[in-house]
Amino acid sequence: MAAMSDADLLFKALADKGRRKLLDRLHAQDGQTLGQLCRHLAMTRQGVTQHLAVLEAANLVTVRWRGREKLHFLNTVPLQQVYDRWICKFEKPRLKALSSLKRRLEGGQG
Amino acid sequence: MAAMSDADLLFKALADKGRRKLLDRLHAQDGQTLGQLCRHLAMTRQGVTQHLAVLEAANLVTVRWRGREKLHFLNTVPLQQVYDRWICKFEKPRLKALSSLKRRLEGGQG
DNA sequence: TTGACATGCAAGTATATACTTGCCTATTAT
DNA sequence: ATAATAGGCAAGTATATACTTGCATGTCAA
Q1: Å between B46 CA and D21 C1'?
Q2: Ranges of chain B with pLDDT below 50
Q3: For residue range A42-89, what is the model confidence (pLDDT) as tens digits?
Q4: How many Cβ pairs within 8 Å bridge chains A and B?
Q5: Residue B103 at interface with chain A, using a CB cutoff of 8 Å
Q6: Domain B1-75 belongs to what architecture?
Q7: Is B40 on the interface with A (CB under 8 A)?
Q8: Which of A18, A30, A33, B65 fits a 20 to 30 Å CA distance from A94?
């Protein structure tokens, strides 16, 4: 397979529903083991392992071993980079973007 | 092929270097014809057509016919949705995110 | 009305992807 | 020591993806 750029690794990692679900699961609870993550996907352990490997390659997930357990941690830095490079840049009406941000920061989810 | 969710269509559309290049080209100049877009990709016209179809399916590109020419327009709304659903939510340290936004809005690129 | 231009449609191929099954290894608990 | 647990590695399969080539169609200009 040809070497993929960071952006390719990242977007391809995000381009699968199962992998996005894994990110959601880690967002809900960080540092889960492979076994824990498997419980939420209708898929064999190997399938999940392979998805996690893709997320690792994209640097969206980091791993730490604890004995025989493999702990998985979310890394959100690449997502920030997606924003900087592919979303911020494409915000056509700049003021609209600004106002929607203000709305989010002031009103929402705080 | 199984029906894909909006998010799938969107991320898969973004998960190809050629398609991202097309988006960049349309960002540089909106409303280009197929022929114009072809000039920047080392690929046959059909290849480009197929990539554009993927972008259309993801609602990232909109099309208008002018006589025999097909004009392509960027639609940034789905990118905004990526931000709302996949980036904003995952900004782990909320205050850091806020400060980097402030930096962008006040200092940068203005 | 004929030719050149802009694009569409269909089929074919090679590679990549998403998954599985089967077996191997390392850690932990009894 | 042994068995259960947590996970790794490799190979195999089916489907999807990224392309290509060849031919057909609609539009414009002379």
Answers
A1: 10
A2: 108-110
A3: 999 999 999 999 999 999 999 999 999 999 999 999 999 999 999 988
A4: 77
A5: no
A6: Orthogonal Bundle (1.10)
A7: no
A8: B65
